[in-house]
User: Fold these one by one.
Assistant:
Number 1:
Amino acid sequence: MKPAEKFLAVCTDDLEWEDGTRVIGLPPGVEVKIVAEGSDGVSERVDKFVRFPAGYTEPLHIHDHLHSTLVIEGEMHVHGKILKPGDFVFGGPGEQHGPFHYPVGCTVFSCSRAEKMNQIHRNPQSERGTDLTKGY
Ligand SMILES: [Fe+2]
């Protein structure tokens, strides 16, 4: 991972949405816009927008990084709560969380950190495999 920028100002409309299945390993339909990433000598980081289409479900998952996630558009239904713009989710490293439901669609801003970043999401209950993009 390249060194992190010390200062960055970004017009996010200039950035392209990418296939979230390829970038973060979630089931098809999700899109990701990476704003900043890099290593600062303490940790690696990826700061990004994630856009979920209406009706999408992000399955129960686990990953090695932590993330701080802010809802900025739409709704995230999780753990008995309906989160709206301004609401927040923290996912700790190695801690399973979800499923997250997005009945009306949702865009979040999510900052991920780890000593060594691996953004691929895994299913902690799988006996057949760990690849969420293939439904298991
Ligand atoms: Fe997560």
Number 2:
Amino acid sequence: MSVARFWRETPRRYNLGGSKCSVCGTIYFPPRAVCPQCTHHRQSIEKMLPFQLSGEGEVLSYTIVHEAAEGFEMQVPYALALVKTVEGPVLTGQVVDIDPATLRIGQRVHATFRKLREEGKAGVIHYGYKFAPVEDADPRPPPRTPAATAPATDGAPGDRAAA
Ligand SMILES: [Zn+2]
């Protein structure tokens, strides 16, 4: 990729800035100028709003890359994954900070900004998003805490009962 093209694409590489159709609510990344979900595409013209993706998602599928493209030689093997974001769009990216052999479908990940590659003799370093695993220690919110163990706060039902 040329340096010029890279820099044109940089805002979304850094920000995960997509777009949202204000007619039907569909979110896109990369951003789109027109919403293909709307029955009459023209109704979405000028109704596409900037939308910031959170970068949170889960691995939909992945492949382990053993032969790297030029500039990625130092990183093989690595996992290249399709990540379904919580907002809906599916992104492609490298998964870092995990042994590729232990990666699994459904792994929760979040976007992180890393060096993507170094380009030849010019030494141009590209940065962009990659994905890192989200710790599985707390995969779901804990069950509702019984009231008896909840910290007492003013206005809690228990206080009123005691008064
Ligand atoms: Zn739409």
Number 3:
Amino acid sequence: MSVYEPSRGETDYRIEFGWVPDANGVGWVFRSRDADDYYAVRLRLIKPGTKLVLAAEHFSVLKGEEGVHSRKVIPLVNNSGLVQVRMDAIGTSFTLSLQDAPVDTWTDARLDAGALGFYQENGQRPAVQALHFTFTGKTMADVANKYAENVPGKFYVDDQCIDCDLCRETAPANFKRNDDGGHSYVYKQPETPEEEGLCKEAMEGCPVEAIGNDGE
Ligand code: SF4
């Protein structure tokens, strides 16, 4: 395992890189306290081609004990050969995105801080390109940074959105995805007490506090 030392005390971050799918796969660790305590994600190539199939799995290692692997098979249309990979670790929420679309979201509260890095199987270095780390702090939604597509009214989504899908699942009558930008926005303000309650629930559940209710 090789970790990025300056990230050791960090809690919330985004890791982004390009990966040309190969038989070796690519694995990375996050919230790593030491070699016995960390979370990990691995992408493997199941079927190559322009309609490729990947397997994404995530698991934890705590006190040296490897936990159950949660695995998801992901079909992907890919004409360029390069797959854009992104993972956001914010609070207890983790979102894996491929080609700017979320493909897996999960929560885990056991490790709250620790380093980011890569791990290798069979001694193979992962072939990643344009690696980028972003360290983020959770700040309240700011009406000055709201997306232009939000309809006027008190609820809005600002530019901290990590496209985790939670608000769209919680309040589907009010939140939609901007597919080009890869983020949520409010496309209808709540019109009933039920919708208002669901919008508040989405706002409280948003892992990066990208939803505000102080709009005009
Ligand atoms: S606004 Fe928040 S809850 Fe909705 S998709 Fe963005 S990050 Fe997720």
Number 4:
Amino acid sequence: MTPSAERAPIAADSALALPKVRLFQLLEACLACATIEALRKQVIAMTQLGPARGSWESAEVVTVRWGLWRDQLRQIQDSRSLERARHYLKRLLRSFEQVKTPTFSDINLCRWQEYDDLWTDSLWHIERRDRSGQHSGHYWGNFVPQIPHQLMRRFSKAGDWVLDPFLGSGTTLIEARRLGRNALGVELQESVAQETWSRVQREDNPHRVQSIVRQGNSASFDFRSMLDQHEIDQVQLAILHPPYHDIIRFSSLPEDLSNQADVDAFVDGFAQVVEGVSRVLQRKRYLAVVIGDKYAGQNWVPLGFLTMQRIQEMGLNLKSIVVKNFEETFGKRSQRELWRYRALAGGFYVFKHEYIFLFQKP
Ligand SMILES: C[S@@+](CC[C@H](N)C(=O)[O-])C[C@H]1O[C@@H](n2cnc3c(N)ncnc32)[C@H](O)[C@@H]1O
């Protein structure tokens, strides 16, 4: 009997909580088998090890992804020799016993295969925006929650502080609450800051983290004082999603980066924000910039590369450039044919991507 025959109804990516003590007993029993035949029979007992329930319910659990767990057991069962099967068993046992994490995340590298929902490629195609909980998508110019979700899981630990100096509708802060990260957000527009503060408070806070919102101009903001007020030493991750210069005018305020007279002034203003933020960022930690380009007249203006270069000149190390698709807004969808015609006639391409630049503070 194969594991898949027994557990057909369980989806491959569903998480299975196995009772730890019993799991370890079974693994040790397998290792004690004297023949490969006996070991294979013993593995069947492990395939039958269900989610923690009954008397095991309150016991410590080990969470596995069902598909991966099934494949690992099958690999042991299919081993031709006792030595090979033992090798796989010992590896499995080690992966449950040991914890090895990078300095900047909680990812247990001993069980790296369990994290198949974390993206490691530089091309992100996000089909649909996550609209759950307080993520409504109502704010013109917000980013999809999957961006801060991925960044926080890869580049911060539970209990870390995340700083977002272009708060907008608070996507980062909402996601931070879900993931157990404390977060600080600064937003120029008073009314937006207030509304976002209320929305963030409405999001559940299962990990009892802190969410702090301030109104201010991030180009001149005293981040140090804000941190001191809350007895925070440093932040461990910064996520910056500025206006893409004047593509969307967020307000009529002169300090608004979307109101800067030209691209140079925009890049200068943005650089001031990065300087302030990186001063309170812990060494070896990450700063992510989410930005797109624009057209001016008939020409492509590479806001992404211009800002990227400026940050490199400040001494931060460029770790990755991610290209992410643009979701099509309702308005744009109805104009798709028109834009296609214009692109063919004018000799250019229609924007379908933006960037996520990843820097590490040396
Ligand atoms: C692209 S939006 C960020 C959206 C946000 N990521 C979200 O998901 O809602 C940029 C935000 O930066 C704000 N902003 C513009 N200039 C600013 C400045 N100098 N200081 C602080 N916030 C600023 C705008 O009001 C706008 O809300």
